[in-house]
Amino acid sequence: MLRELEDGLVVRNAMTGSTHLLEPLAAEVLGLLLSAEEGMTAAELAARIGDEAELQGWTTSMEELLLEFKRLGLAGPVD
Amino acid sequence: MIVGDLTDEALARLLSGPGLRLRTGPLVTRISSPLADIARGIALLYRDHEVQPAEGFADFHVRIDRPAGLRRWLKPQVQFQFDGWPPFYPLPGDQGFPILEWGLNWCVSTSCHQYLIVHAAVVERGGRALILPAPPGSGKSTLCAGLIHRGWRLLSDELTLLDPSSGQAVPLPRPVSLKNASIEVIHRFAPEAVLSPTVHDTLKGSVAHLKPPVESVNRALEPARPRWIVMPRYQAGVEPRLSRLPKGRAFMQLVDSAFNYHLHGAQGFELIARTIDACDCHEFVYGDLEQAATLFAGLAAEA
Fold it and tell me: B150-154: which pairs have CB atoms within 8 A and are 24 or more residues apart?
């Protein structure tokens, strides 16, 4: 369950019952993951979100964000 | 019939016999106790509450008594029992009324899952509820006690009951718990306020309870629609300052303050979302109760 609010996205994970407030970047990434038909890599996410000059930095950020999503049970690796 | 209609002897007989069936908002509690402190506290602070006939349903059956054994005679203690079971350790003998109040809060917060229960004070004006979630020591109960002596109706100083079907805040008007310096603050702020004698050296420091205003008790079946969520914080010497709280943070504050959010699942999420949508959300710092009351009167007038 999702609720978009002025300072981010509130998301309830039905698997764990936990509720989280995602800041705008994390909310955008989760939105991309939810709308993707297949999984997305950190580099693909970075390319959709950041500008090319800073792609490496964005990829690192995406990797960290995906790890956090995995910890929260909001996203996980696909085969 | 209300508690005030009973003579001291009749009240003591009920408490030490079949129990006093006391209505507080939507709930009925059967209270029994042979202790004079309990009878005195109920006579003083629940004077306007409805007494139900001795026979009948009660949501909770509680008893305050001395624990068995030598301690009954040597440094006496008091114990709270729920359905014959003591959920807490006994406390010193002069803490009978505080343990009754803490025990009743425990009963509601662990059992009334028909509501989403938020650790927050809630007051009403013009049909609109002001919810005050805050951790202990933030000045929440003091602010609540001040507002109910400046035109606001008490729904609860401790437990905000949100009805998932209507989204409304359901009243549970009971004595307001005041601690330490706030006891004297309320004495000075509202000289007409009825307070219990102060009990010292409790787990929470010095504690006194404030009688809920009669109008709040008489309107205990009148819910109110949430309109404001304000997180208060007392800070000595500051001017009152109300600042906007982003709604995502307010949402998480309600989630974190709710005793039983996890039990309500998706319904709890929806209920909090509806509440947040309906409310203006603020943080509030104050150092003077009169200034705070004036500011909230203005807030109510603007809405």
Answer: B150/B293, B150/B296, B150/B297, B151/B125, B151/B297, B152/B123, B152/B124, B152/B125, B152/B296, B152/B300, B153/B123, B153/B124, B153/B125, B153/B213, B153/B215, B153/B216, B153/B219, B153/B224, B154/B123, B154/B212, B154/B213, B154/B216
How close is the nearest chain A Cα to the Cα of B247, in Å? Answer: 6
CB atoms within 10 A of CB A28: 15
B75 touches chain A (CB under 8 A): no
What total number of domains does chain A contain?
Answer: 1
The whole-model pTM stands at: 0.92
How near does any CA of chain B get to the CA of A6, in Å?
Answer: 7
Q: Is B244 on the interface with A (CB under 8 A)?
A: no
CB contact under 8 A, A1 and B266: yes
Cβ-defined contact of B251 to A9 (cutoff 8 Å): no
The verdict on A7 touching B (C-beta cutoff 8 Å) is: yes
Q: pLDDT per residue over A16-60, tens digit each?
A: 999 999 998 899 999 999 898 888 988 888 888 876 556 667 777
In a domain, A79, yes or no: yes
Give how far A7 is from chain B: nearest CA, Å: 6
Q: What is the pLDDT confidence band of residue B55, given thresholds at 50, 70 and 90?
A: confident
Cα angle A51, A52, A58 (rounded to 5 degrees) comes to 65
What is the extent of the structural domain holding A40? 25-79
Q: Measure in Å the smallest separation between the Cα of B25 and chain A Cα atoms.
A: 30
In a domain, A77, yes or no: yes
Which residue of chain A has the CA closest to B272? A3
Predicted confidence (pLDDT) at residue B2 exceeds the cutoff of 80: yes
Q: Tell me which residue in A1, A10, A12 faces B248 most closely, judged by beta carbons.
A: A10
Confirm whether A33 is domain-assigned. yes
Report yes or no on A3 lying in a domain.
no
